[in-house]
Design goal:
five-stranded mixed β-sheet; Methyltransferase, Cobalt-precorrin-4 Transmethylase, Domain 2; Cobalt-precorrin-4 Transmethylase, domain 1; alpha/beta; elongated; about 25% helix; 10 helices
Length: about 280
């Protein structure tokens, strides 16, 4: 029933990457709670893309997993840290194609746990930030399957940071809000109170927003956000493929089209975008 993607399950005989370059300094000294239980599911955040941003706890669980069920945006270097004997199942989603529907993923987690396996559900970013981790946790709880949530570094803050954009900054922004730009569950527009967001937060961070950018911009302007408000659109953030285009609500759509930016993306709206001019460091 569950399909394995060979391209996503390659394991290098020699492990490389930031983990082994740094000799994994916490290997013998980590004091966190690490009793790994069979028949349990670990909802692990893999971080925003840069493999060095997975947490110490998340990495150690990955290395002990019997089964790894992972998403489209998980870096291969992270996946290669899992045990070579571990079963790896790809359940990635793109906006136009889902390898497995969410209900099937929930059932897969339950099935593997009932087989007595140590299951790591490896999700991009943080499992509970627009990652449907809460739905998976609900399904596990309803089926009386023990689970644990291991938070990850969210792209909502990490991707802007790699673009030289702090989501808060003294004297510029003291609040930020994270929303989805993805279409709603019925295929319509996202169910968001744009009238409140337009004037109720200093920095607006929109995940999965590039495909619906025209609608988002239209709603913000209609709800009294000045057309001159700075905007940044960042794609493939925290990776070697990162690209960032800046503009204003008035011209950002044309700029994104001109540069042919593609998902995954993070959109940042607010005056903090102007700080990129002096704080840009990663993609110079």
């Amino acid at each position: 029933m569950w399909h394995h993607n060979e391209e996503h399950t390659k394991n290098n005989s020699k492990k490389v990457g930031p983990f082994h370059e740094q000799a994994y300094v916490f290997q013998n000294g980590y004091k966190g709670e690490m009793e790994v239980r069979s028949g349990k599911v670990y909802l692990v955040g893999a971080g925003p893309g840069d493999p060095g941003l997975i947490t110490v706890k998340g990495l150690k669980l990955l290395q002990q997993a019997d089964v790894v069920i992972y998403d489209r945006l998980v870096d291969e270097n992270i996946l290669n840290e899992s045990c070579s004997e571990a079963e790896k199942i790809y359940v990635g989603k793109a906006s136009s194609h889902h390898t497995l529907e969410q209900e099937m993923i929930n059932r897969l987690l339950i099935q593997k746990a009932r087989e007595g396996k140590v299951v790591v559900r490896l999700k991009g970013g943080d499992p509970f930030v627009l990652g449907r981790g809460g739905e998976e946790a609900e399904a596990l709880a309803e089926s009386h399957i023990p689970f644990e949530v291991v938070p990850g570094v969210s792209s909502a803050v990490a991707v802007p940071a790699y673009a030289g954009i702090p989501v808060t900054h003294r004297g510029v922004a003291s609040s930020f809000t994270v929303v989805t730009g993805h279409k709603g569950s019925e295929g319509g527009e996202p169910h968001i109170a744009w009238d409140k967001l337009s004037t109720g937060t200093d920095t607006l961070v929109i995940l999965m927003g590039i495909g619906n950018l025209a609608y988002v911009v239209d709603q913000l302007i209609k709800n009294n956000k000045p057309p001159s408000t700075p905007v940044a659109v960042i794609t493939h953030g925290t990776t070697s493929r990162q690209r960032c285009v800046t503009g204003t609500l008035q011209d950002i759509i044309e700029k994104v089209k001109s540069e042919n930016l593609q998902p995954p993306s993070v959109v940042v709206v607010g005056d903090v975008v102007q700080l990129r001019k002096s704080l840009q460091w990663f993609d110079k």
